[in-house]
């Protein structure tokens, strides 16, 4: 790749989501884009086949997969990376009395521990470029909704950690941006676990309402993924630091 061309790696780039839109927006700005997904067949074919786009199979829950991604990036950039976007994430919508502890821990691993693992793995590449890390948290981190305590708290943990990393990474020349993402029109809820309210739940009478929270209606008044991605890339380009 052109050594003068900036590079970005984005996690969770399946077509129809925020990651795919971010990949398009960075690519439009001239970046070499490392677009990633657990299943690369879910990536946009037009983006995957574009010049200056490298498709990587990446499972952010696997240290081996992350290490392989690091080596792939290093081999193409000379050990450099300008921007790392921790976008992968998931949701979980159920009353606290009904959630599975195991599933809750899995969500924290995806929404919190995976971004930290990615940061540790790619930090040497970001230090070389005095680069930028972008962590996709959620407005629910500061405005938690009932029935979403696990999701909200996982995103709150990421927000708190990301802001702490901002102070730790600044002396190394790395900028940190934390996104408080609100309603964006994507396919997020198509990948969202079903809100299966147990028959003996204290909240069974409102199970239809709970199911409605994961059918995509919450996104109806949101902005488009393209609008969102354009704004995020703009923040990266103008040197923003901190919470956006």
TrEMBL record:
Record's keyword terms, sorted: Oxidoreductase
UniProt-listed GO biological process terms: phosphatidic acid biosynthetic process; triglyceride catabolic process
Recorded GO MF terms: acylglycerone-phosphate reductase (NADP+) activity; triacylglycerol lipase activity
InterPro entries (alphabetical): NAD(P)-bd_dom_sf, SDR_fam
Keyword Oxidoreductase listed: yes
Span of the signal peptide: none
Oxidoreductase listed as a keyword: yes
Top-level lineage group: Eukaryota
GO cellular component entries: endoplasmic reticulum; lipid droplet
Family recorded in the similarity comment: Belongs to the short-chain dehydrogenases/reductases (SDR) family.
Protein name (database record): Related to 1-Acyl dihydroxyacetone phosphate reductase and related dehydrogenases
Species lineage: Eukaryota, Fungi, Dikarya, Ascomycota, Pezizomycotina
